[in-house]
Amino acid sequence: MLKTKTAIKPEDIVEIVLRRRWLIIIPFCLSIIAGIYLSLTLPKIYRASTLILVQAQRVPKNYVRSVISAGIESRINMISQQIMSRTNLEKIIDQFKLFSEPKYEKMYLEDKIEDIRKRISVNIRSRSGTNAFEISFEDTDPEKVMRVTNTLATYFIDENLKVREAQAIGTTDFLLDELNNIKAQLEELEESLRVYRKKFMGELPEQLESNLRILDSLQEQLTEKQKSLRNTKNMLLVLEKQISESQNMQDIQSDVSMFSTDSLVEFETEGSTRADQLREQLSILKTRYTDKHPDVMRLKRIIAGLEDQIEQEISESEESEESEESEESEEEIFSGNNYQELQIAQRDEITKEIKTIANDISKIQKQITIHQKRVENTPKREQAILSLKRDYANIKGTYDSLLNKKLEAAISVNMEKKQKGEQFRVIDSARLPGKPFKPNMNRLFALILAAGLLVGCGLVFLMEYFDTSFRRPEDITSLLGLPVIAILPSVIHPEDIKKRRLNLFFSIFFIIIIFFLLAGFAALTFKGVDKTLEVVRHFVKI
């Protein structure tokens, strides 16, 4: 039989709920019982957390710069990998006797380690420039959860100190090795520069001015030597001419059998003439040179010797006037021979002097050639030295930079050893958890209540939907289109009254039971199993 669509009033809903109350009470009661059962039987997973603050270094960064350049996230991730290594987790398992229950006897160690890793979590927090991170651990034993979490926090703090110190020492060692390598390169360049300077000594740029001065001095010496050589050669020519004339005169005198006084006078005149010629040459040399010049001193010696010889000849001639003519002839011939020998000796001396001057000129020319070559090679040496110095300056700059960094790294190492650098400090240590983290009892409580009500309401809706009986006169009028003439009241039998009273009694009884079950379920949810059992035991004892 089809039903017409009519508006449902609140009193209709109340009437349906009261009439179908058992369809709501029973599912709701069963759902609460199921929730209590789940609260008591589901495995309880407890969770403990500790908050660690990343404290900045105590020494201002303007004074000491840290050599730890890695960010906080990367360092925490690196330390997390070290903490969650197989070796470290095995120590934690043995220390706290995790997986010691009989049900874990056949579990492989790899599975235990993987399970521990899944239950450890590290979360980084960053607020207002302050960095912190949280370490959490989950397990069924709340005391073990607290102890393991605090131990992990201690591991993190200790490992951070070790990592920072190791990184600082590693940086210092690296800089020291690089510093030694650069120092070896510097010493090699210094040795190359020293060898190059030693090899090309005299051609160096700083010696250019000295070489030019030496060249000027050598040019002056060469000019003087050349002038002296020309004068000496001229003197040699004059002397050779005089020797030739003397030899001719000696030949003439040897043919004459006697030597007269006129010949002596002629000899004196010739000697005087020779002395005058030498004095003229001496005066010419004095206009060019000083009295200490070798040519001037040599001419003075020749003139002095010639004058002494003339005076000796004159004195000897005066003493031998009384001797015989044969003796006079022999003495004059002897004096002529002495004068000729003196001229020959002078010629030999001048010849030697010419050779000496020529050798000096040759040496000076060689020195000039050497210094000219040095001056010509100076630009090449300057370019090579500039290249060596440029490489030296570049490496020296690198060496100075590394040396400064090495000193800073050494200070940073001392700062890390004295624990004045960036540190991890525990703000909130792990505490004994009071209620389980899993399952979520609040969510379970809400789901159980919602499930019980939804099942009951759903059954009531279905029963009402498929109910074809008439409940009101309006249903007959709207469905059949016939007016209702009269409504007969139902006849209530005494047995029906008893059944209604009994139904009402059981309804109230079950509502009370549901109330107590709901109170117990709420206590289990919000207070926890242990505290609820303690309260129950307390009331039982009373």
> How many strands in all?
4
CATH 2nd-level architecture of the domain at 206-377: Orthogonal Bundle
| CATH topology call of the domain at 206-377 | Helix Hairpins
* Form type: rod-shaped
Sheet with the most strands: spatial strand order:
2-3-1-4
Percentage of helical residues?
Answer: over 70%
On the 0-100 scale, what is the average pLDDT?
A: 77
Q: Can you tell me the residue ranges where pLDDT is under 50 for at least 5 consecutive residues?
A: 255-267, 322-335
> Strand portion, in percent?
5-15%
Distance between the termini: 60 Å
Radius of gyration in whole Å, from Cα? 67 Å
The CATH class of the domain at 206-377 is identified as Mainly Alpha
In DSSP terms, counting alpha (H) and pi (I) runs of 4 or more, how many helices?
A: 14
Question: What is the element string, with H for helices and E for strands?
Answer: HHEHHHEEHHHHHEHHHH
Classify the secondary structure makeup into a structural class. alpha+beta
- Report the biggest beta sheet as strand number plus sense, adding barrel if it closes: 4 strands, antiparallel
Could you explain how this protein is built, in words?
- This protein is α+β, with helices and mostly antiparallel strands and 542 residues long.
- Among the domains are: 105 residues, no CATH class; 172 residues, Orthogonal Bundle (Helix Hairpins), CATH 1.10.287.
- The chain has 14 helices and four strands.
- Strands 2-3-1-4 form a four-stranded antiparallel β-sheet.
- A hairpin with a 2-residue loop joins strand 2 and strand 3.
- It is rod-shaped, with a radius of gyration of 67 Å.
- About 5% of the residues have low confidence.
